[in-house]
Fold this sequence. Notes:
This protein is mainly alpha-helical. Helix content is about 65%, strand content about 0%. It has helices at about 20-25, 35-45, 50-55, 65-85, 90-120, 135-165, 170-195, 210-225, 240; strands at about 5, 130-135. The longest helix has about 35 residues, at about 90-120. The radius of gyration is 20 Å and the shape is globular.
Amino acid sequence: MLPTTASKGRGAARPAPPLFGPYLRRIVKWQQMDIEYTFWQMVHLCTSPKVVQTKNQWARDDPAFVVILILFLVFATSAYCAAYGQSASHAALTITSVVLIHFLFAGIVLATLCWFLTNSYLREEPNSHVVEQRVEWLYAFDVHCNSFFPAFVILYVLQYFLSPLLVAHGFFPALLSNLLFVVAISYYHYLNFLGYDVLPFLDRTTFFLYPIGLVIILSPLSNDTDRVQSDKILSKFVLWLVKADD
Length: 246
């Protein structure tokens, strides 16, 4: 699905076909989802993200990626709840919060922000003979989903297996936990940059790399703050929900 277009020339460009309707309808039709290609994308987002970002398609019309990512979130959060002995009601609340707030709500906010920034400030000025192009909101959400998956692997999966070490007292657990967050957040913003950098009508997309420098600068301060209370490191992301009743 190409970004939406609007003509500045004589003729009016055809509007982009509606996508939300078919997209939402396919969520409940597993037989129409390309599961194999979705897993291929997920693997390559962690190993060769440029291969995924440069496919000849701007936004997915297949909701399989979002559906499978939500299922992964449910399974991973359930594992945290089981490992830390939470009740069924609290586990349900935790899973709901992770899916609706951590992924969907945060994704909608971030995608909307990037959609606004790209269309308002980062588009190249077209001349009178070139069709004006704009970033679709669904494409911006698509980029967020791509960027979120490696962060999920680091902060939900890898951190789960390292959690016995990370909840221990001491400087090293605090350092390792902060390192995981720095890598995950930096990789998120790098993939976010790649997602917009492939659009030929955008300029100054290196703007999306700036948060990486801020994360690296602030990381030593966070490590120093958590040096004494390293048992609370994991509460930054998932376990603050799981351990909220403690």
